[in-house]
Amino acid sequence: MNRKIAAVAAIATVLVASACSSSSSSSGGDKATLSKDGKGKKITVWLMQDAQKGWPEVVDAAKKQFTEQTGAEVDVQWQTWTNYTTKLDTALLSGNAPDALEIGNTQAAKYIEAGSFVDLTSVKSQFDNSDKWLDSVAASGQSADGSKTYAVPYYAGARVLIYRKDLFDAAGVTQAPTTIEELKAALTKVKAANANVPNFSALYMPGQNWYSAVSFGAGQFGVKGIIAKKDGDKWTGNLTDPKFIEGVKTWNDLQKEYSVGGTTTDEATQDAQMSKGNIAAIIGNGWEVSAVADPKTGDPALKDKLATIALPGLAAGTPTPAFLGGSDLAVPSKAANPGLGATFLQIYTNTAQQTALAKHAIPNAKNLVAAYKQADPANKATGEAAEGLTWFIPNSPLWSGADETALKNAFGAIAAGGDPATELKKAQETLVKDLNG
């Protein structure tokens, strides 16, 4: 059984089982409604413990407002990411799905393809700031062609340049670079100033860190249809587009000139590596600053020496596009109270709640990121990265770890001296075959 047949079979099982066991009050999973008829009812909402630990006051405010407007109570059931999709699959199969839930943005495609989420397209305009949602997180909640919305952006995280300000200052780089050319000039100085440090990387970029490589490709090609896009019923690849290859060559020049990260490793250990003192900069998630300076796994002495900026792009004020991770919110098609579930999400993601959430994480809309940046000076870099152009993986349930491996292998081979066009063509053939089943 090939991947596409297997995936369709699994999807069909979930749909049929959940349809047979759904309550008579179900919406049928076609079109969304926003209901305020909740007197005497209680809805169930699944949220990750990130909110319980990070912004419980936002959840409480949304619950209070929801009850005031609908008369219904809210039972928030806290979840963890471990085995979460297995738990959700079981709930769908047994007809016990919650009325609203959180889902990782890389997990959403599976459920969208299966028809497991209510189509929110018709009510999208009634969600605050829906015309300003962060590009990549919004895309993850849409159909593959972007024409329909099934999940609402919740919050996000972005990759940035994390660097040793003390090493940059010592090398005479006292102003953060604003373009790729300025970055190269800065790294050249940092490299020269640390020429006697064994295994020194001015910018640690291991060859198989495909997220960074694709970001540079997107800097030339653009973020629409990055890696692959869907034309009708078929996926076509963009890895061999000349503009994408041009961007990848920029990445390759940087890793060759400034990194000793090797060609067979990825970014998994870069925080621990940076804490050893022989790395001046990495490209990583904003939270990795804490990991580098962690007292147990890193070096706490580096805490006040680390700084972040959005990864510079071709022009000042235009960062290299970042991969934007995060979470979405959705309403299961066979929820007992889908209209109330959609209304809770509308309230939970309104301007007031998202502005409050911005004290803790990147909110879901570009016009609200300013509040996130103002909450802490350390948020400036990730905020600017999120406000800029961002990219996302092909929104298909057939995207898998095998596809990531194909990208890792291709960029590792390029880093080892392989021809970018040749290696990317190999990866593209694998990816397109996988995405088309």
UniProtKB/TrEMBL annotation:
Q: What is this protein called?
A: ABC transporter substrate-binding protein
> What does the record list as GO biological process?
maltodextrin transmembrane transport; maltose transport
The root-end lineage is: Bacteria, Bacillati, Actinomycetota, Actinomycetes, Kitasatosporales
Keywords attached to this entry: Signal, Transport
Superkingdom assignment: Bacteria
- GO MF: maltose binding
The family note in this entry says: Belongs to the bacterial solute-binding protein 1 family.
Query: Which PANTHER family does the record match to this protein?
Result: MALTOSE-BINDING PERIPLASMIC PROTEIN, MALTOSE_MALTODEXTRIN-BINDING PERIPLASMIC PROTEIN
Instruction: Identify the stretch annotated as signal peptide in this record.
Output: 1-19
Q: Does the keyword Transport apply?
A: yes
Return the GO cellular component terms, semicolon-separated: ATP-binding cassette (ABC) transporter complex, substrate-binding subunit-containing
Q: List, alphabetically, the Pfam families matched.
A: SBP_bac_1
Asked whether the UniProt record includes Signal among its keywords, one would answer yes
